[in-house]
Prior knowledge:
Elements: H1 2-21, H2 25-40, H3 42-48, H4 55-65, H5 72-83, H6 90-104, E1 107-114, H7 120-134, E2 137-144, E3 151-156, E4 159-164, H8 165-177
Parallel strand pairs: 1-2
Antiparallel strand pairs: 1-3, 3-4
Helix pairs in contact: 1-2, 1-6, 2-6, 4-5
Amino acid sequence: xxxxxxxxxxxxxxxxxxxxxxxxxxxxxxxxxxxxxxxxxxxxxxxxxxxxxxxxxxxxxxxxxxxxxxxxxxxxxxxxxxxxxxxxxxxxxxxxxxxxxxxxxxxxxxxxxxxxxxxxxxxxxxxxxxxxxxxxxxxxxxxxxxxxxxxxxxxxxxxxxxxxxxxxxxxxxxxxxx
Length: 178
């Protein structure tokens, strides 16, 4: 996963810079999201992974599905990805693009996992604390994960705040093994 993000990052940065310069962040956001869904389709994965098909045939198959949804810049970008055998990175590229866009807009996504359902007041308190820490708007995504046993686990970008019982037990187990 980390390797995929590492390889996808330069592509995402390049397309983000292109979109930002052309004041086309929303258009590129939609384009990448759509193209990522096409690239992740199992039938498309078979076509892209078929060594018997030429680059031209693969590109034709991909672009025919995207007919009318890609402008010339997007078609060139897809050609570059296909040529470099990186089209499978489109979901990661789209995700990174959205992260860059959110950062520019002063937003950051936070995944909040709790062992038990959280009330509105608890979610608001967590979000307020994250806003104070990151000085940005926080878009929370709240899920229930009973395997945490108790507490919460929050992921914001690369930062992980694990205040769950399971996390504490894992830390204890690691310390005892030393």
